[in-house]
Every structure is written in C-alpha cells, then in structure tokens.
C-alpha cells in the first residue's frame, strides 16, 4: 500500500497510509463551510451512496424508459443519461425523501427535453406484441374525477403518436409534469402534491390548464389536417369537418 511519511510521523514512529490520510483529511474538512472542493474520498463515498440507492431502480427505470421510447436501445440510452444526471446532481437530493420518484422525474424530464430538441418521431409497436408504446402511454389517462372523457382521450384515435408527443412538449414544464404524474402515471392529486411539494389546489389547476391547452393543440392539428369527424367532449353528432384550414363553430374552442 502506498504510504506517505512526514518528519513528524517519523518522530512518533508512525506511518500513515494514503487512504488513512484522505480519511483524516475528510474528518478535518467536515466542519468547513460549503463551496470548497471535495476530496477524492468524499467523491467516492458520495458515488457509492448514489450507487446503493440507484442500482435497485435499474429495472423499473428501464421499464418506464421503454414506455416512453418503445425502443430498447433508446431506453438503455435514457436510463444511462438518467444515471449520469442523477449522479451529477446527487448533492441536491434530500436524504430520506423518495429517491425513486426523484430519479423517475429526472428520466421523464430528460425524455421530453430530448424529444423536443431532436423532434424524433416516437415509434409505435405492433399491437399484437402487447408491448407498451407512446400511444398506450398517452391514452392511459384515467385520472378523471368526473368520469367524463377528457379532451386528450377524445382525439387520441385521430392522431399519429408524434403529433401527440408534440402537443405534450408544448406544455410548460410545470403543467407537463403534473399532467404526466396524474393522467399518465395514474397518481392521485394528493400523491402528486406530495411528490412535487405543492398544494392539491395547485395540482388541480395545473392539470386543468394542461388539458385545456392539449385540447386546443389537438384540435388545431385536426383542423390543419382535415380529419373527417371530430367530436368535442360533451357534443354529439358534430358535422363532418369541412376540410383543412376551414373551421366551423363545432370545430372552435368552446
């Protein structure tokens, strides 16, 4: 083992290993103020702590990445990026809180940020395989207190997945996060509020505004592409769409 010996050590008849010196330095620096550079041993200990927390989450993070990307290679890349981002910002994680939720939030935000920048079209799986795909994720919204069909569900059957993902990407980060947690992940208002550290009323407000914005975005896609039959929620027997760029009253936002 590599050792470092000083004159004072020789006088005391002691030799300190490099590891012991680093450990001693860590103890000496423990009471110093923030903003100072960490020793290598501190960085290793932090990394080990992150690894202990993150390693058990690999499978669940990969499954969630598959739901988002529907592609094994993209899912693996997303998990790797999530681990890198989580490790880099591990000092911002509050010990004792929900680490799995923290990592899932990182993964979800990475996916939407990457998708919005790259504008890559999500891949849709063969329905016969039973695998998750972007369409399944988007249409999985069942968090409806009134039991009524939501705007995003109303139009889901009329759009390619890439248009749906584009609509989600246009939401503000705050609204998108609440929408995904409640409408896609299926969490209750209270669970969302607890996870984000906000009030239930704020959750409901952001979710309602997200749905309203999605409704407008999807309706805009319908008018641009001239889908033949578009029914707004709560309306029955709407006439056929007149064609691209020609909205009638039944096609306008109510």
UniProtKB/TrEMBL annotation:
Domain Fork-head: 55-137
Keywords for the protein's UniProt record, in alphabetical order: DNA-binding, Sigma factor, Transcription, Transcription regulation
GO biological process: DNA-templated transcription initiation
Compositionally skewed regions (Low complexity) per UniProt: 25-38
UniProt superkingdom: Bacteria
Biased composition (Polar residues): 14-24
Renumbered residue ranges of the record's region Disordered: 1-49, 225-254
Protein's name in the database: Sigma-70 region 2
Organism: Parascardovia denticolens DSM 10105 = JCM 12538
Source species taxonomy: Bacteria, Bacillati, Actinomycetota, Actinomycetes, Bifidobacteriales
């Amino acid at each position: 083992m590599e050792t470092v010996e000083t004159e004072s050590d020789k006088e005391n008849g002691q030799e300190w290993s490099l590891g012991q010196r680093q450990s001693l330095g860590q103890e000496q620096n423990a009471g110093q103020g923030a903003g100072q550079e960490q020793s290598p041993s501190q960085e290793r200990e932090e990394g080990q702590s992150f690894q202990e927390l993150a390693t058990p989450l690999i499978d669940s993070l990969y499954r969630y990445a598959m739901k988002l990307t529907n592609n094994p290679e993209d899912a693996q890349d997303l998990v790797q990026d999530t681990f890198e981002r989580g490790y880099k910002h591990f000092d911002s994680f509050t010990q004792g809180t929900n680490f799995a939720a923290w990592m899932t939030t990182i993964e979800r935000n990475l996916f939407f940020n990457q998708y919005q920048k790259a504008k890559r079209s999500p891949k849709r799986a063969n329905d016969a395989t039973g695998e998750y795909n972007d369409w399944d994720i988007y249409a999985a919204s069942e968090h409806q207190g009134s039991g009524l069909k939501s705007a995003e569900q109303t139009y889901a059957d009329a759009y390619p997945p890439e248009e749906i993902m584009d609509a989600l990407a246009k939401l503000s980060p705050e609204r998108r996060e609440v929408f995904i947690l409640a409408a896609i992940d299926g969490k209750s208002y209270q669970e969302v509020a607890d996870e984000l550290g906000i009030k239930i009323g704020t959750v409901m407000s952001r979710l309602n505004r997200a749905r309203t914005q999605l409704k407008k975005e999807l309706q805009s896609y319908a008018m641009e592409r001239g889908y033949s039959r578009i029914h707004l929620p709560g309306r029955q027997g709407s006439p056929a769409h007149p064609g691209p760029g020609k909205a009638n009253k039944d096609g306008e936002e109510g």
